[in-house]
């Protein structure tokens, strides 16, 4: 039981860390794409990454 | 009942700690007094004030679908767990500002700055951040400038745009100056900071070509290389030939920063800016946590008096009396207008439920305020004599080490040449005299905390780790700010000549980036050649600009509250706004008309002009004097312009509010229509 709890806690922590680092952004995009635009091919991982960076750094995303 | 007892206890402990901090008059005081006072005030502010503001003033509605739900596109609009958004938002708002401001304001003693950070944070900055975040969330993530235009009119919108561009220029100049001063004649710091550039490029290539989008992997590799660069800087420092290569004066370093800023602004973001930002974010979160843990573990003694004699305006680090300059010097950490730009940028598009704005808006700013308190502790745990020796410019305390220690000791803060030499040797630097800008003294403070908590023998490594940490995110702000300035300029120039508005047309990119870099590069260069250190001029200007932006944000918020019929709650944003208007206006007034050349721009210009005319200057001084005189006059104009912008926006807000109160037509409410959360959920299930 406690082992199970520990693994599920570690799993949650790991997914939070991946989320914070935006490592899971592409997976989320794929999930969204499959559900909202089924039929059209999604962007490749690299194309998605580059597009994300471009839009992130077009506005104010860092402060003093 | 138990809850009531608990919060009463928090209030009592908080009151006791604040009283202890404020009334203590011994030789030293333990930093835990400040930590406990801060934690109690933040807890009470969050538990009660932020809850009340969210419920009554903003009328947060958890059943109302947010733009992340309504416009979900799997990329920038996406409902995200509130703690993840908290992390992103905190990483976005927390930069070098809350570290440097308190370090400089420590010249007044530990008490004034600390009280302003706590009170300004809980009643001002946190409220501003949460309110703007909420208003932007209600408006599909619109920017502050757009909201000013929509809700007040074109005048407010234009003023917000002009204010943002000005603050960007001054902010980058002052941060550039901080980095230059930290690298000046320090081969270790310079080589480490230089090494961060190829490391960022390597990470950028890794994240694009080798393992696209695997940010954790790329960042861990980069962090390992950065730590290696800190150690490697030590080897460079001990190698006679390499040492000379990186032993640079201020001017070439300023040109390096200017060239770097230009190149970084025109390169693709994935190559340098994005990977550098990942590295700086991990470093920032890690170091902030480490600092908090180390302060709590070590419970250092504060050696700075509660209040120093410099509250009269004669301070060596910057001229000007406690009022209004403590409130100008500490902007980030108490209230920072810049946050309003982030709160109306990416963050509102990620919020999954309106009720999250309290944690994300108010909570993130509270944490930034904690960072400012930690910076204050790191600055004031140094012996005051040492603190002043590091932070005072040679134009104030004398050019030689002997002159400096004599001057500083005569103020009642004893320090000796041997003591400073020993400290410099421990930190792996050739000297620590006149290392203005705040970064070196913060690094000495952090190094002493870290080394006593995690390993005594590594002072020099910790010192240069702290310098690298500050430099990495200052350079990120510099890249990112230059790009934002470039986009704003392109937008403005596009109205004059269409092709200039195309953000990817290369001639326009080069011209507009060049103009932005020239803008801040000018102030940076003048700051470097100024014998009084430049920080004395630039930091107050930055503070005024940042508070001006906060004034614009609070004006927009107050105007919207009144338009929505919440006049009786409008003091929540109106009182901080009034306070900002008072401090920025009186600071501007003093910076322009004061007879003291250490404070007034014009009297400094006149004094220098008279000295130049009478031939009392050395040839080197006379060579730069015309530039410095022109610059002081320009700064006076700039300060007046900034205050004028704020008053224009306030007047516009009052005009719109009065019309709203009288029932006359005003610009319509620009909120997106109400959509119930359940209709989105049902829609998603049906699809």
TrEMBL record, chain A:
InterPro entries assigned to the protein according to its UniProt record, in alphabetical order: Sel_put
Query: Cross-referenced Pfam families, in alphabetical order?
Result: Sel_put
| Protein name from the UniProt record | YbdD/YjiX family protein
Q: Which organism is it from?
A: Steroidobacter agaridevorans
């Amino acid at each position: 039981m406690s082992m199970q709890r520990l693994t599920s806690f570690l799993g949650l922590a790991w997914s939070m860390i991946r989320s914070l680092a935006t490592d899971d952004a592409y997976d989320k995009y794929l999930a969204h794409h499959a559900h909202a635009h089924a039929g059209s091919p999604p962007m490749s991982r690299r194309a998605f990454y580059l597009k994300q960076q471009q839009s992130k750094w077009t506005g104010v995303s860092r402060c003093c | 009942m138990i809850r009531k007892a608990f919060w009463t206890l928090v209030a009592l402990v908080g009151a006791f700690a604040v009283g202890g901090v404020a009334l203590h008059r011994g030789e030293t005081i333990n930093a835990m007094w400040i930590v406990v006072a801060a934690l109690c005030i933040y807890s009470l502010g969050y538990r009660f004030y932020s809850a009340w503001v969210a419920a009554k003033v903003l009328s947060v509605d958890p059943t109302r679908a947010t733009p992340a739900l309504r416009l979900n596109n799997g990329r920038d609009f996406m409902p995200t767990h509130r703690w993840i958004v908290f992390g992103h938002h905190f990483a976005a708002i927390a930069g070098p500002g809350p570290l440097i401001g308190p370090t400089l304001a420590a010249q007044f003693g530990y008490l004034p700055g600390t009280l302003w950070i706590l009170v300004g944070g809980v009643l001002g900055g946190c409220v501003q951040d949460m309110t703007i975040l909420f208003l932007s969330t209600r408006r599909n993530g619109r920017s502050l400038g757009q909201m000013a235009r929509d809700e007040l009119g074109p005048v407010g919108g234009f003023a917000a745009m002009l204010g943002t561009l000005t603050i960007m220029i001054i902010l980058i100049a002052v941060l550039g100056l901080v980095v230059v001063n930290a690298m000046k004649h320090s081969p270790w710091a310079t080589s480490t900071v230089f090494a961060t550039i190829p490391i960022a490029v390597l990470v950028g290539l890794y994240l694009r070509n080798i393992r696209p989008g695997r940010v954790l992997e790329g960042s861990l590799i980069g962090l390992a290389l950065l730590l290696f660069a800190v150690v490697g800087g030590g080897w460079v420092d001990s190698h006679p030939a390499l040492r000379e290569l990186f032993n640079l004066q201020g001017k070439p370093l300023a040109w390096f920063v200017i060239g770097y800023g230009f190149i970084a602004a025109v390169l693709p973001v994935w190559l340098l800016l994005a990977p550098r930002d990942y590295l700086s974010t991990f470093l920032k979160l890690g170091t902030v946590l480490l600092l908090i843990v180390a302060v709590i573990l070590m419970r250092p003694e504060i050696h700075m008096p509660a209040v120093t004699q410099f509250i009269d305006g004669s301070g060596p680090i910057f001229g000007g009396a406690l009022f209004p300059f403590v409130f100008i010097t500490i902007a980030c950490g108490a209230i920072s207008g810049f946050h309003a730009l982030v709160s109306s940028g990416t963050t509102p598009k990620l919020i999954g439920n309106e009720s999250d704005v309290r944690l994300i808006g108010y909570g993130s700013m509270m944490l930034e305020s904690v960072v400012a308190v930690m910076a204050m502790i790191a600055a004031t745990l140094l012996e005051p004599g040492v603190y002043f020796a590091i932070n005072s410019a040679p134009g104030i305390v004398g050019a030689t080490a002997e002159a400096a220690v004599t001057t500083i000791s005569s103020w009642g803060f004893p320090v000796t040449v041997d003591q400073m030499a020993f400290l410099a040797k421990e930190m792996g630097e050739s000297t620590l005299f006149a290392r203005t800008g705040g970064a070196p003294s913060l690094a000495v403070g952090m190094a002493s905390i870290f080394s006593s908590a995690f390993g005594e023998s590594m002072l020099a490594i910790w010192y240069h780790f702290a310098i690298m940490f500050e430099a990495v995110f200052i350079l990120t702000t510099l890249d990112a700010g230059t790009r934002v300035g470039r986009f704003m300029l392109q937008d403005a120039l596009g109205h004059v000549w269409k092709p200039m508005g195309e953000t990817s047309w290369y001639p326009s990119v080069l011209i507009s980036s060049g103009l932005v870099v020239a803008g801040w590069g000018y102030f940076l260069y003048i700051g470097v050649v100024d014998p009084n250190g430049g920080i004395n001029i630039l930091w107050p200007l930055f503070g005024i600009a940042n508070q001006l932006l906060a004034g614009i944000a609070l004006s927009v918020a107050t105007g919207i509250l009144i338009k929505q019929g919440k006049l009786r709650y409008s003091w929540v944003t109106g009182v901080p706004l009034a306070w900002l208007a008072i401090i920025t206006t009186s600071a501007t007034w003093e910076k322009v008309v004061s007879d003291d050349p250490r404070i007034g721009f014009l009297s400094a210009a006149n004094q220098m002009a008279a000295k130049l005319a009478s031939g009392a200057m050395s040839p080197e001084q006379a060579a730069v004097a015309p530039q410095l005189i022109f610059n002081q006059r320009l700064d006076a104009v700039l300060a007046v312009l900034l205050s004028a912008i704020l008053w224009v926006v306030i007047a516009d807000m009052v005009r719109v509010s009065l019309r709203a109160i009288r029932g006359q037509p005003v610009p319509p409410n620009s909120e997106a229509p109400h959509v119930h959360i359940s209709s989105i959920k049902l829609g998603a299930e049906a699809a």
